[in-house]
Hints:
It contains four helices and seven strands. Strand 4 and strand 5 form a beta hairpin. This is FGGY family of carbohydrate kinases, N-terminal domain.
Amino acid sequence: xxxxxxxxxxxxxxxxxxxxxxxxxxxxxxxxxxxxxxxxxxxxxxxxxxxxxxxxxxxxxxxxxxxxxxxxxxxxxxxxxxxxxxxxxxxxxxxxxxxxxxxxxxxxxxxxxxxxxxxxxxxxxxxxxxxxxxxxxxxxxxxxxxxxx
Length: 149
């Protein structure tokens, strides 16, 4: 019985395979190809490319584990540092590049949300542009072409 652990990181994707005693059998790592603008405000990546990479890495580590001890995978664990916004259409197809939690494009939207949902309503002392709701508001205000999808 082998276990695969997958870290869906901001800069790297890492996939490790362990035996039932949690002894590491192998680890693979791939760099995440992010698109960043010059000022570092926008951080996006291709959803399909990211998913294909994860799937291939899981398959490779499963094969490595099987060769190491002739055992099958019984569990796949996924972890990640923070949320990423992925917009899908009705067919669950991505309609925009994924927006990383590191993306800071929604500073203006933070101010708008804070003025409307201040501390006495939400309990939040501060709104920051890494929060998904601020990115969703940015999309709503700046990407009118996506609203009809």
